[in-house]
Batch of 4 targets.
Target 1
Amino acid sequence: MLSAMRLLRKYNREMAALALIAALSAGYVAFSIPEYHDNAIITLIASLVALSSITALTDRQTIRDQEVKLNVALNNMSQGLCMFDARGRLLLCNERYMEMYGLTPETAKIGGTLRDLIANRKAMGTFDGDPDEYVDNLMERYRLGKYHTITADLADGRTMKMVNQPIANGGWVATHENVTELRKREKEIAETRQFLELVIDNVPAAISVKDAKELRYILINRAGEEIYGIPREKMIGKTIAELFPDKPAAVINARDRQVLDTRTSQAFGEHKFDSPHRGTRTHLSRRVPVLGNDGNPQYLLLVIQDVTEQKEAEARIAHLAHHDPLTDLPNRAAFNEHLAQTLERCEKADQKLAVLCINLDRFKDINDVFGHAIGDELLCEIAKRLPAVADGAFFARIGGDEFAFIVADDKLPTSADWLAECLLASAAEPLEVQGHSLHVGMSIGIAMYPGDGADQASLLANADAALYRAKADGRGSIRFFKADMDQQLRERRALNHDLGSALERNELVLYYQPLARVDGEIIGFEALVRWQHPTLGLVPPGMFIPMAEESGFIIPMGEWVLREACREAASWPQPLRISVNLSSAQFRHGDLVGMVYSALFDSGLAAERLEIKITESVLVDDFDRALSLVRRLKSLGVHIVMDDFGTGYSSLQNLQSFPFDKLKIDRSFISNVETHPPSATIVRAVIGLCRGLGVPVLAEGVERQTQLDFLAGAACDEVQGFFFGRPQPIAVYAAIVNGEDTAGEDGGMERDLIPGKRRKKRTAA
């Protein structure tokens, strides 16, 4: 009894633990504190030992009451509990433990071994792994006196946390806790944190956080690494002064402190930042103080947006808005803006101003022959060459091959005239472009402020009028504006406007010029378009054809000419040939072969009676496409004629590659062939070449008997010119197309076909 009392006094702490356990089960003490929880379990086990020691010294009823209380406390715990002796035999377990693992008193009986208990759990499916390995490992830890915690995922999806703690008097006690929900919440928190980190890391703006006390970096996202040019692991824990030079670091620190002192968010506009790895950058930034519960700043949030590329893009867009993308010269918008500013300045200073409008000569021919790539490079070379002689005058490209200068000084108009002469001289020198030596001149029109115009619009209009006069007077000309030029320009523009509706108003008509063999036999006609203007009368083709080519009206006009010529020729009793010109624009746009086929089909004209005339310019722009089109046209049965041979960039390769049915020598070689030996040599050479190739030759521009005699002697095949008839309405040549055996009347033909010869009746083309 005395011994039992000593034990009671010795274990009064453990008995106090019973009260703690009861309190835990009643919810008065937070059971989630790991350290206190494990100590309480140890004291609980000690209490059990004390209880057994005093059994013989106390009243049995008291002991029974204590046992009841202890059982209530044990069985109302939220954790499963079991205790083992030093040999690994079960001393006790509570109901919660058996419930957690589906055990019964028989499968978890007192005195059974740990190995048996684990084997039973294995059989119940509440233990994964090797029971023997688990028991051996646990016993080894017990012998070493080690605290042991295990977290295991069960097959049914639950997660259990097991704590094994050795006790002083031998054996150990184990607690089991279902932490499934806790693990689930922890996992959700971890996933949420990972998601937030992922979002922050992928925000395109740089985000960094510093502690408010020392301003050391504690968080930096990926964009922050890119902006600073330093890996984040080298920045975390460091201050800005430890990472960057003194000057930028001092500026950044001052802004940080300003925000922390005021405790208000602040935005900082565009500012430069010298990154040691990325050079000078342009930033926008915002600083936000993060306050703690006490109202004092705990952290400083910094958001930085690098707008360097954006500013560069804006600058490029602004540049493109005022500069020509091909030559990088100021464009028309920049020219107009500069002219307006210069006019305002000249008006205040009572100073003169000159506008020089420049248009390149022969540029269209170069573009057609060599292609647009060569034409573009030529423009770039001109853009480099002209400013070199302009002495700082404002220079712009205001159109396709149109340029302009603005000159404002006290030496006008002399200085403008001198500049124009220098520009002409500069353009006269050949330009080397991709192995081609190109000659391109220019025409220049000049208008002066204030005499030729007091405002921007009139000054530009008058400079344009002067340019038009310069082009009309011949290539390489300089013209100053005169009062009558404005009227001429307005008339030209009005004519160009009227041309756009000439087809709709049925103002276009066809004239026909005879084609003859060299012996005088008429074999067909060439269809030539004329414009019968309602007020101006018959407009010369040299005036409106260039307008049509510039405006693109040549395409619908060319189709009308082809269809009308086919329709007219199909009505002739005599099967004479009809020759029609096609422009290079028609080769580049639309379905040319389909159009020709449609014209033949709709008119009923036999394909072999149609001759299509093309110039070499259509072959140079896109050789392969042109060759394909010519071959497809030939497959229809029509004849292909090379027009104006020798005036452009003639190539013997073209004669070899393209299946031409005839070659036409330009009138410029025929005009003085009987008196100019070089022309005669060229004509003989061309005729001989074509005869060797089996290609007939037609010479145009025959106006005299001597020319015809020369061509007959040179064995030319066919001729055309005023000597046989001028372009006239087809009614003038009614006798020929009807097959009547009469000579042409005066005015219908220049004269009878050839003296002493009668025109033969034709029965076949």
Target 2
Amino acid sequence: MGTSSTEGAGADFANANRGFIAALKPGTITNSEGTVIWNADAFNFLQGDCPDTVNPSLWRQSQLCAKQGLYEVTKGIYQVRGLDISNMTLVEGETGVIVIDPLISVECATAALDLYRAHRGNRPVVAVIYTHSHGDHFGGVKGVTNGEIPILAPIGFMEHAVSENIYAGTAMGRRGSYMYGTTLATSPTGNVGVGLGMGTSTGEFSLLPPTVDITHTGQEETIDGIRILFQLTPGTEAPSEMNFYFPDFKALCMAENATHNMHNILTLRGAQVRDSRQWSRYLAEALNMFGADSEVLFASHHWPTWGTNEIRQFISEQRDLYAYLHDQTLRLMNQGHTGIEIAEMIQLPPSLATAWHARGYYGSVSHNVKAIYQRYMGWFDGNPAHLAEHPPTAAAKRYVECMGGLAAVIEHARRYRTNGDLRFAAQLLNHAVYAHPDQEAPKHELAGIYEELAAATENATWRNFYLTGAKELRGGVETSVVDLGGGMATALSIEQIFDTMAIRVAPPMSWEQSFSINWHFTEPAEQHRMELSNGTLAHWSTTHDKPADVTVRATKSQLLGLLAGADPNELEVSGDLSVLSTLTAVLDDNKPDFPIVTPRESNKGEHDLAAGPS
């Protein structure tokens, strides 16, 4: 494999080591109960030679990401790397320090700040900046502040932080356990990182709402004597994201828009499809705004890039990477090819394919191309045969029957495996597992194929999916989802809390119920109207009451308590108190341990859609 001139064979390692001050020793972080929530030392095996069980390119990337400690980016700017999946950056001002992206967990953020202070002095935190709305960039905020300082974030931050971590949080969390390999042992046969970092911490998750919105590109703020020039980049790596430049340091923060790997247009854990076209254009804008003056570029993951020429080449190659994926997908789409076909057709030009920072350690050409197709065309490829296919279990039973039964399918799969076609062997055995979920033989056969696929792939998240799937096929579901909702709940608005309730309303119990509630809140001072009808919970803010079945006077914390199981009798209520019990009764529980590689309960029945939708 070749390399670009920006990142020669040893340049990444030199840059990843540059400015090193001290590591956290030992490299473990615990919570208040003594449970380890982060263990950097578990990846010490990466210091050795690459084994046959890991792709050599991925091994190299993991060696780079495993470096941990406090680093000087430039005089006055420091990073703590390797104490969570993300970096925490600290910028020294006249009286204190600005914290950028306080990691996932309160405990990790506290440890990172303590490491900084041990070597730079006990400077107070004077502000926090969230670069974007993903949890690994704000969850540890209460480890660095109690909220009595400015907190800056791009406009729309709270909406998108809640949408991803709360509304779809349970499903994304379950899929995330596969993507990040959270149940896998850290070893040469297990988890070797995720390409973007080493993994996700499991400590206390928190959120403090922003106090200063960044609303437009070109907005300038001065904090503790430090000038910061902002560039909004919505719809790139996150729906709400921003880059920013420190003129006095000649330092450019690229958030998560330009890192040392190909990123995701759609993450394997699930998210909104990102706009690769706009992503590329914002990188071009950053290059034009800041490229000529920047002497160091740092980001929310990985290691910095130094030198104006090196920075310009790095950003331009990242710009071209996302533009190429977008434009070639659209070109082939308009020739009639589908997403799954285009993913097999596209190859990066040599100039990008040989750049280490453009390689698919986290995103991949394959799943990014499918995501771009999905953004424009949706799930349907236009073939009527795919319009109303049977769900997985029903289809699997038919496939297995057509192929001569379970034993025949297993034998076919073994033949394809022997011939090196692991992908089709996996498809065959997946049908076998779904058709006969009570049989262990196809599960163990499929698990072995997943392990072979894992050993070959360069993409860390694909590796973790394969290995986690293999583990669950052999041993069943192991719940590992971290509850982000609890740590965020107090930061939600009343409207957002009601939204979380609306998406939990369960049929058929809700179909025959109807009621109305007037909510009067004192903290914050708001009025809301809520109505349940036709299995739908509608709500809106209001300034006056209409007649209702019940009127409730409460604080936001009391509302959260009611949802957590508190006695409704503790609330100030006028009207029919039983309505509140009916409300909580129609709310379904989330299921964070649903199966992924074996059938879900809803897939076990037969569904006949031959006549089309009713």
Target 3
Amino acid sequence: MGNIMAKHHSADIRDIVLCGHAGSGKTILAEAMLFKTRMITRLGSIADGATVSDYEREEKEYQYSLNSSIMHFPYNGKEFNLIDTSGQVDFQGGMISGMAGADIAVICVNAMRGIELMTRKAWDMAHQYGLGRIIAITRMDGENVNCQEVLAALQKNFGPKCVPFVVADGEGSSFAGVKPVMVDDPEGEAADFRRQIVENAVEADDKLMEKYLESGEVSKEELEAVLPKAIMAGTVIPVFMLAAEKDLGVKEFLDVAAEFGPNPLLSRRTLSKEGSEEASVAEPKEDGPVMAQVFKIVSDPHVGKLSYMRIFSGKLESKSQVNVSSTGKPEKIAQLFRAQGEKREDVADAVVGDIVGVAKIDNLHIGDTLYGSGGWRVMRPPFPKPMTGLAVAPKNRGDEQKMGANLHRLCEEDPTFEFTRSDQTNEQVIRGMGQVHLDVMLSRLKTRFGMELDTKPPKIPYLETVTRDAEGSYRHKKQSGGAGQFGEVHLRIKPNERGKGFEFVNAIVGGVISGPFIPSVEKGVKKAMEKGPIAGYPMVDVIVELFFGKEHPVDSKDIAFQIAGEMGFKEIVQGAKPVLLEPIVNLEIAFPAQYFGDISGDISSRRGRPTGTDQLGDMQVLKAQVPLAEVADYGSTLKAITQGEGSYTMELSHYESVPSNIAQQVAQKAKAAQE
């Protein structure tokens, strides 16, 4: 196929990310829009694994979206780019990076289930990005739907800016579609919604606000002109009701998105400069220098690495050259393409707002900015740190290198998936957002790269520190034929603030230890701190002061002071009351309210401290701080307590002292393992 030139203008582009909790109808809404605009000839179903966006083998197997997927379609003279994202808590990385490619977040809410954990995460993230927000209440034809209750919950949780742009004709089995509010002379409920839209919209324009306060009127033209700006600014949050599978409410949603959806020229992104604290805001310029950000990567064993990017400024052309923010080096763009699910078609160029891909550039990563000049880069998305881990080893011996290379490819696709070697525990560990996330990644490793791994729970990354001051001296003296060794050090050990790490203080006066030997002492101390005195875990947050010592004119040398520093620290630290530290995580659990007693009791039994509760529609949210060692396998427990209806997120908060009885057990296990 020949290259397609961009025939559209940036003002006519609509970049939408579909987000919300799992089961909120995002994929079917995407399918319905493609069907409505004749990009597909029939509506695919999730059960048959036949949708455009869920094309990966694992997605068909699990029957829900795991990755972000990119599609496009024309409607009413506008060019829509659509990013469908996963609503699974474990796969929120795709939602976070997908938002980097969009201007409008369409947050889907299942009419039967109301607001859920990922609904709020999507809302907060879209606000953080400065995206326009639209709410789509889906499954309006489902059982026991009460639209008024869902609307009331939306306004309670997200504020009065959430206003319906349509009036529902019935609900549940009698749902027959919707009537638009933005018509001439609406009546009844529609007129009331129209008035709320006007009152909220004028807030986005000071002059119009003034006029409205004085006259109580805004013309149709003025309202329509200000709406895209108001949606982008969040003073208006349009709400729609639909049943996508039955093609009810889809047209009305598309009409408003096409006419009033913010276009890419209204988009603003925060920029930063390498090595500078300076920040700026990107104003999209169609004729400015090119600036694009990579937000999705796929490692295809047949085609190689595919990198998808959103254009924020200028025009990107095939066979052009751009600089990459993470390397500072130029890269040649051989051929651009755009995606329709897993299908690709070549394009000659891309303008502001376009979403395009490029193949086989190994040095691109999610969050990278491609730029023509200036060195500015778009701020990287803020990904949560994965906390659920598995220690891994290849089933076939000799596959270590291959395992590392393939796991790193999967890490490039998903910034919430990590593969590291822990010097502390001497294990190779994969970490993800939950057990399902890790299962999917192991499945991908097998289906894409033909590799299977042995797994086991990883060791908890404990640390050690000191809790009081101690001081003492150590003399290293060796004289057994040949050159001797001599070094004497006097050290003071003190606790440092949590998180401040190790500090070495040179308090030598009068040159009692020569300058070149001071770093040798520090090197020895650091070596001793690699294995703490309690259970052999690394030591942190310690101040070591070298305040006196002695040297010998012939026998003092680097190695002598290294040994003196190491052995001196090991001896003196015993008097500084060392303690074991454990990682504490912030746990946020969402579950049906009837399980509150069981959940809170279980958290207490895991040494957890509740830090707050929240209501999310019919769901209760419990926030707690819990030792990681107690919740490493929390997913299975939560599933059992809530019959699979609960979900949770977990991120590292800080380190804390381990109670002495538990510290004793940890130390015994560590010593047994070392022996």
Target 4
Amino acid sequence: MRRLKIIFEPYGRRVEVEEGESILEAARRASIGLRSECGGLGLCGRCRVIIDDLKAVSPPTEAEGRLLTSEELERGVRLACQTRIHGDLVINIPPESRVEAQRIEVKGLRRAVELEPMIRKLPLKLERPKLGDRRGDLERVLEALGGDVDVEWEAVKELPEALREGDWMVTAILWGSILIAVESGDTTENIYGLAVDIGTSKIVVQLVDLSTGEVISTGAVENPQAIHGEDIMARMTYAMESPDNLEELQRLAAEGVNEALKEALSKVDVDVASIYEAVVACNTAIHHLFLGLDPRHLAVSPFTPVVRRGFKARARDLGLNINRGAWVYTPPVVAGFVGGDAVADVIATGLHEAEELSLLIDVGTNTEVILGDGEELWASSCASGPAFEGAHIKDGMRAVRGAIERIWIDEDLEVRYETIGGVKPLGLCGSAVIDAVAEMLRRGILNPHGRLTAEGRRIKPGPPAEFIIAWSGETATGRDITLTERDVNEIQLAKAAIYTASKILMERMGVKPDDIERLYIAGAFGSYLNPENAKEIGMIPDVPSERIRVVGNTAVEGARLMLLSKRLRDEAERVAEEMKYVELSNDPNFLNLYPRALYLGRFT
């Protein structure tokens, strides 16, 4: 019987199955929780998955024809219990089908700000119309508002009913000087906005009370665009194949935001119609895909974006389920590979205003590195790859229940670990892989080239050689969980990219690691990273621990601040314009630094 390779996303779990097995059986083999209330009988329709290759699976069954629409089947939606595997396959498990949700960082560093949002709510008490008074409903509202006000069509449409339902007491909602909605009665107490971070692998939203600036609820999902590739280049390639593909990626991004918002709204009593603006931070490629802009010129030198400055679009045009008249603002991008999320990082940390030399590293599939001293601000981006998410690691997985997240190795080479949820381990998430490499380096198990040099019962000779983290009797899979030399090489490639980007920016400013007075580690992965272990392998500069600050999701925090302050929105435009960008592949020292950065050891 032919053996086939299956990848389950968004977990990054890989498993081999025999041809003809069902997807549900393969998921169980991989110890992945997949809803199946009917026990796999094809009755409940809860085990929905999305596949990337319809030719690699069996045709739809009668049960699927009954439980799935033709549109869903065309999009690759299938029932795991009904679908048989006949070829190598990538299978995406959507949030509603998962038993366990991934741990996602939704909070970041908090910075105080004077409230000055673009959205204003003004209560208006108007005179009833009388015979001989030729003013229309809109003219009455505009006279009460005074000044030069533009009007959205959506606001005019709802105006007659709002005026009469409220007995001529209404609330006007303005975005800057644009009337975007009119509501009956005095609704000034209900005024909300949405701060959004669309990352390569995750989407995070914060529901913000614009009258107080407080986050009242949060939501997060995996980015559904991942069904078309774990990395940005794969998605851009897919988008460039046809306008329909670009449209699909735009729709998937919007659906992801809507799902995250749905989660946030489930925790509070807020109507979506009371959300009047969204600020969306993302890297340049995701920015283009979210706005439905052709990314083809981002993919080739000189990597030119369609638009650099901050941009606004109507929420309804993008498919976001908030107030029909609401606007969406995307912060300015710096360059082809440094986007509005990096600008949001700067706004959140105040890096552009700090007098101390500060380095910010926003760790992710694409890592942004920013260096500044209050006078100069330098930025670069590196493709650190999905290894930090557990991808391309033999026993790697995302940060979900059952993932080993912390590792310690004793002098006698015995291993201690912690799992998310305190349950039997399924595999290794990225933070554990960093821990393992650092600990193995300290104990002499690894040499600086990434080769296993020790001997003992935990060493499996290769190729590739493996170090056993958890024995088969301890794991939920019944198999040893190991770290291989090939896994270590993946981490070397990822950490070398970050090392090189940081080093080149320091050379441009004429400073050394010892000069860094503040090191910010940002991003979801960065929140769970052990800084000492990151220093040990040469991923971040070797600065004293008291200078390091783990700041969480600064992209979504920067989006929140721009939602609350027109001044900070203006600052963001200035930061993007003044920030100096380094394209690593064009730097004359890149080819010299990167090979050296592959060595495991402290950053000098």
